[in-house]
Amino acid sequence: MSSKTKIVVLRMKEIIYTAIFLGLGIILITLLFIMFRPKKEAQTASSDLVQTAQASYTPGLYRTSISLGSQNLDLEVAVDADHINSISLLPLSDSVETMYPLMTPALEQLSEQICSSQSLENLTYPEGSQYTCSALVQAIKSCLSKASGQ
């Protein structure tokens, strides 16, 4: 009988160390994937918004009221025959700015996007102010429908 049986002796200490290092390696690789994956920073607005690039308007200032708790704000959109010129909130008191701090930056960002693209489609806004932006877009949409005579 010439079976060359080999006996391998493993120490329990070596097995435990190997298992711990293997577990730490898997955790490290997982953390690296989580940290360095691409993040979605902005969310696009829904596709059912009105496209205003080809619209013609009656020139003027159009207002829509936005109700915030017990206060009302007027959103004003200035248009000429073919373009959206500006979007602003009137009157924006100190108490409203304090209670709703995201209102002014969200409107500035939306106004810049809308005035440059002349459209309410493909708007992007940060995830933290998505509800504020959604309310503002609905008010802008209302003003533009008044301006186009719909």
Task: Provide a descriptive summary of the structure in words.
By secondary structure, the chain is α+β, with helices and mostly antiparallel strands. Helix content is 43%, strand content 21%. The chain is built from four helices and five strands. It has a three-stranded antiparallel β-sheet with strand order 2-3-4, covered by helices on one side. Strand 3 and strand 4 form a beta hairpin. Helix 3 crosses helix 4. The longest helix is centred in the N-terminal third of the chain and has 25 residues. It is elongated and about 100 Å long.
- SS-based class: alpha+beta
Major beta sheet, strand line-up? 2-3-4
Helix content: 40-55%
Order of helices and strands: HEEEEHHEH
Shape: elongated
Q: Got a strand count?
A: 5
| Computed Rg | 29 Å
Major sheet details? 3 strands, antiparallel
Percent strand: 15-25%
Q: What is the averaged pLDDT score?
A: 81
Concise account of the structure shown:
Helix content is 43%, strand content 21%. By secondary structure, the protein is α+β, with helices and mostly antiparallel strands. A three-stranded antiparallel sheet has the order 2-3-4, covered by helices on one side.
